[in-house]
Amino acid sequence: MSAALPPFPKPQETDGPTELLQLRTGTDEDEPCLRADAARNRARLLEAAARLVAEHGAAGVTMEAVATAASVGKGTVFRRFGDRTGLLMALLDHSEKKFQAALLSGPPPLGPGAPPVERLRAFGCAMLRRSIDELELQLAAEPSAERRYTAAPRRFLRGHVALLLRQAVPDGDSELLSHTLMAYLDAALVHHLTEQCGVPPARLRAGWQDLVARVTRTEHPA
Amino acid sequence: MSAALPPFPKPQETDGPTELLQLRTGTDEDEPCLRADAARNRARLLEAAARLVAEHGAAGVTMEAVATAASVGKGTVFRRFGDRTGLLMALLDHSEKKFQAALLSGPPPLGPGAPPVERLRAFGCAMLRRSIDELELQLAAEPSAERRYTAAPRRFLRGHVALLLRQAVPDGDSELLSHTLMAYLDAALVHHLTEQCGVPPARLRAGWQDLVARVTRTEHPA
Fold first, then answer.
1. CB–CB of B180 and A180 under 8 A?
2. Residue B145 and residue A207: Cβ atoms within 8 Å?
3. What's the pLDDT band for A22 if we cut at 50, 70, 90?
């Protein structure tokens, strides 16, 4: 099987999508007086856009479709996100923040309160689910080779894995091992395996459980 | 530490560097009557260029420098490789073929004749050495996310690792595990760790031995 990726509007600036994303985050944080109903409105638009991505892929997300799905005027979507690139970047940022919150303060085993190996297992399965749902968005926003490992969202997730590995594998090089575990969850690899090789998601999840067991020298879960 | 990558002349065609590379290979194979002295001359130019990359990085490879290093006229270098991009692509192709030959028919443990775990260990250390020596070339030739896992040189190397894993880990998913081992050796990751994080090559090699031991559930070598 081979699947062409849908076109994605790249930002015109020399800065990559991630810088744009951080810029956007910064802008929002600089607006403490953003009215509560505007914030709710923004969240509602992003949830509608996320549903469209899940149902139709990134190609299905247009300003018009989001406006219709959220029952607002098209002008509202343009005012909030500027253009379609702005909307897609805001969407990735929104998803990233929800996921980070789940890791930091959500219920176990994804959040705190479970043994580190169980948290690693849950982390990988959640990442694979995200990668499969948001594959096109993540691929389109992939930074260049020189910046791939320094982009902020990736640094946070890799640091989370390294933290769990320090607890689970005190005798290992948790920094290097964390890169290895993150590589299994890389969007470009997940795309290759699912879209180009036809590997079913269940096999990817089983492979993750197996990898965590080998890396931590533990037994497979029952 | 942070290192900017030197500029690299990208080919103008829509085909990526790897297609160019395959094209070049094909062209050479279509010239069985390439005279022996011309073939020797080409090999001598490539060896000179490889020395320049090792000593000065990809930025140090100019048509003039290669001509001087190989004691030939500049015209000879232009006639053989067309332009600097052609030279750099031929260089990567040359290095790839030498490495493939070492895996297929060189002395053990890189070549056949050693136990699979030992061959995996040797493979990773040789790949890390290559990555560090040719980092700029490999990064510059990195295919886009959609083609990264289907490019021919990568497919060959990944298949080699999967073959060794089938013997070393008969109970594992050798296809998925082979992607994980290859990811540790990825040029972009090696660049990040060595150039951006200051990780010394010896630590990368030790991390590879540790990873192979964990994945194959064997002990570290003495």
1. yes
2. no
3. very low
Say how many C-beta atoms besides its own lie within 10 A of residue B21's C-beta: 20
pLDDT tens digits, A174-217 = 999 999 999 999 988 999 999 999 999 999 999 999 999 999 99
Cα B67–B72–B78 angle (5° rounding)? Answer: 55
State how far Cα A152 lies from the chain centre: 12
- In the DSSP assignment, the letter for residue B193 is I
H or E stretch at B143: none
Out of B145, B148, B180, the one facing A211 most closely (by C-beta) is: B180
Q: Do A183 and B193 touch (CB under 8 A)?
A: no
Please tell me the predicted confidence (pLDDT) of residue A29: 44
> A145: phi > 0 → left, psi -120 to 50 → alpha, else beta; which?
alpha
B172 closest CB neighbour out of A5, A176, A210: A210
Contacts of A190 (CB under 8 A, 6+ apart): A128, A131, A132, A135, A204
ipTM: 0.78
Runs of H (alpha helix) within chain B? 17-29, 36-56, 63-69, 74-81, 84-105, 116-133, 135-140, 152-168, 174-184, 187-191, 201-215
In SS3 terms, A192-204 reads as: HHHHHCCCCHHHH
- H/E segment holding residue B145: none
Residue of B nearest to A2 (CA): B146
Q: CA B197, CA B141: separation in Å to the nearest integer?
A: 22
Choose among B194, B71, B92, B68: nearest CA to B140.
Answer: B92
Kind plus residue range of the DSSP H or E element containing A78? helix A74-81
- Concatenated DSSP letters for B76-127? HHHHHHSSHHHHHHHHHHHHHHHHHHHHHHSSTTTSSSS-HHHHHHHHHHHH
Q: Could you tell me the domains of chain B?
A: 12-94 (1.10.357.10), 106-215 (no CATH)
How far does A40 lie from chain B, in Å, by closest CA?
Answer: 35
CB-CB: which of A145, A191, A206 is closest to B188?
A: A145
Cα–Cα distance list, A163 to A87, A171, A175, B23, B122 (Å): 33, 13, 9, 46, 30
Length of chain A counted residue by residue: 222
pLDDT at B145 exceeding the cut of 50: yes
